[in-house]
Amino acid sequence: MLMALAFTPEILSLMGQPPETLPHADAYISTLMWSLPLATAFTVLRNFVSALGRPRPALWVMLSGLPLNALLDYGLIYGNFGLPRLELVGAGLATTIINIAMFSALLAIVLFRKPFSRYAILGRFWRPDWPQFRQIFRIGLPIAGTHLMVAGFFIGAVFVIGAFGTEAIAAHMIAIQLPHISIMIPMGLSQAATVRVGHAVGRRNVEAAYRAGWTATAMTVCFMIMMSVVVMLVPEAFVKLFIDASRPESADVMNLAVSFLVLAAFFQIADGIQEVMSGALRGLNDTVIPMLIAGISYWGVGLATGVWLAFSHDLQGVGLWLGFIFGLSCAAILLGWRFYRFFKRQHLPSIQTPT
């Protein structure tokens, strides 16, 4: 991935992105790319402590990292606190430094604090455990494929919307922040569902396993309904956090971003449901079919419909956001139906007992 990111301008150019954006993207990625390995490793540690039912250490590390990242951004982007003015290069560098610090802090907690230390996660790390690797990859690779489908869906949308000019890109990047923020709660509930369902599976408690999945789904629906109402009531206020609405050149971006946010209100509930249903199914060790559902929903339905509406019907960015509604709704329906089918059959996966 680092090798691919090193050719960011060339890749973006081949994808038809506006030439004036390429130097800025290159400057940012040139330092941000180095955060990728440790950010990934931090995610592994965060999931490890969460699977043990103790997510707070990761939370406190991340809460500490956020303000530090903001301060370092402020210093390195604008040259404050006696630091050099590096602008976009500084933004990427700040994120990389904070990712290194967060990974180091959480690794120290896992290695030296109870109850995590008794697992000795780095003990004999040079001796491969092939059966364990096979089991992890059997379950993990489809999960990775699902994440790739989802990320590719939204990243691909950026490339498509780039064909409609810099105003469309700016409006899209502003508007997409709110769904990205609101999905954080369903993502947390999704991980909680994975852990709670998985623990119930280990106890062979069918009722507890499915109760955990349905409870997380109900909480998600309630939260996302609330967020959708907020989006419908104050879309302009959110957009004004990112741009100066008093400037004449901001009017087009402002209007387009508001129209995107109105559409976001219609797909947030489906987005939350598909996220939590994916987590509950992972607790049942069901990862291959959800990956296929993700591919069909996001790419076969969502992006394909969005591109068709954007170009064939000249809806441009609005058409692409309509594709979000179709794709996320399809994923929510199919994943929810699969979990319901398992529930009706009272299905529990078999457990591989360590030898």
Descriptive report:
The chain has 355 residues and is an all-alpha fold. The chain has two domains: 18-127, no CATH class; 129-344, no CATH class. It contains 15 helices and no strands. It has helices at 2-5, 8-14, 22-32, 36-51, 56-78, 87-112, 130-161, 166-175, 177-182, 184-203, 206-233, 235-239, 251-283, 288-312, 316-345. The mean pLDDT is 88.
- Report the mean per-residue pLDDT as an integer: 88
Number of DSSP helical runs: 15
The helicity comes to over 70%
Q: Got a strand count?
A: 0
Largest sheet: none
Indicate the low-confidence ranges by residue numbers.
Answer: none
Order of helices and strands: HHHHHHHHHHHHHHH
Number of domains: 2
Strand content: under 5%
What's the alpha carbon Rg, rounded to whole Å? 22 Å
Terminal Cα span: 36 Å
Category by helix and strand content: mainly alpha
The gross shape turns out to be globular
Helix-strand blueprint:
Layout: H1 2-5, H2 8-14, H3 22-32, H4 36-51, H5 56-78, H6 87-112, H7 130-161, H8 166-175, H9 177-182, H10 184-203, H11 206-233, H12 235-239, H13 251-283, H14 288-312, H15 316-345
Helix pairs in contact: 2-3, 3-6, 4-5, 4-6, 5-6, 7-14, 8-13, 10-11, 10-13, 11-13, 13-15, 14-15
Task: Quickly describe the structure.
This protein is mostly helical.
